[in-house]
Amino acid sequence: MQRLTQRIWSQRSNWHIGDLAWQRYEHVGREHEWQFEVWERDGEVAAWAWAQQDSDLFLLVDPAHPDLADEVLKRFPDRQVMILDAEQHLIAALERQGYAPKDGWHQIFMTHDLRDLPDPVVPEGFTVRSITEADLAQRVEVHQKVWHPSRVTEESYRNVMAAWPYRPDLDWVVEAPDGRFAAYCLMWPDEQNRVGELEPVGTHPDFRRMGLARAACFGAMRALRELGAEQAIVYPVHDKPALKFYEQLGFQPYARTLTFARG
């Protein structure tokens, strides 16, 4: 799944290799809810499906083999499917199989060129840095505070840290004067395509409106650039404050998601 995701990635693809790693490992004990299948052509994976117990279907199909989209949809019928508006081969297959777009929330895909980035700036006494394995407990604690109630635990985050393509030097935090982690940004690199994805980003409720998440993001983005990357991407929800936040950081929209369902 990861090999296909990396091989065909472009701004016309709904999936980045960081998506699969984060969504697969951020929680533990959910394996019974999932079903994975892959389709091969010429000895390599050309399509994959990730069926969710709650009726959602995640999928990726190589545009060079658009007929496989019909096979995936027939294998997992009547699921809700979210794709990118640029994935025309999937839109065509969904329409052939009787699906139609539905209204509702959607994500805006945004990109930021890494050539000109400001230094991360924080108030006096705060520190911007990448984490080490010794920071695991605090790293989990700040995530839980941001996304309360959260199912992320030390066990699950240890799995995240062990997953490819996670790198601790791209997991950035802002440390407060009292030692607490006040904000963070996790960057997932794709060195082949020279692109990194921000997922997730957050600020502890006690430290909001201080520019700390901004500093964490620019710290991570500058570290990503040092690895040879050319752009960073992120997918905020269209009607949430995060969209404005990323616009203020200089991210520009390039696509949006569409949700399809039958009936």
Structure explained in plain terms:
This protein is an alpha+beta fold and 263 residues long. 29% of the residues lie in helices and 30% in strands. The chain contains eight helices and twelve strands. Strands 1, 2, 3, 4, 5, 6, 7, 8, 9, 10, 11 and 12 form a twelve-stranded mixed beta sheet that branches. The protein is globular and about 60 Å long.
Q: How would you sum up this structure in a few lines?
A:
By secondary structure, the protein is α+β, with helices and mostly antiparallel strands. 29% of the residues lie in helices and 30% in strands.
Tell how many strands the DSSP assignment holds: 12
The percent of residues in helical segments reads 25-40%
Shape verdict: globular
Q: Cα distance, first to last residue?
A: 30 Å
Strand pairing plus helix content: what structural class? alpha+beta
Strand residue percentage: 25-35%
Element string (H = helix, E = strand):
HHEEEHEHEEEHHEEEHEHE
Low-confidence stretches: none
**Average pLDDT taken over every residue:** 97
Q: Sheet with the most strands?
A: 12 strands, mixed
Rg (CA only): 19 Å
Helix tally equals 8
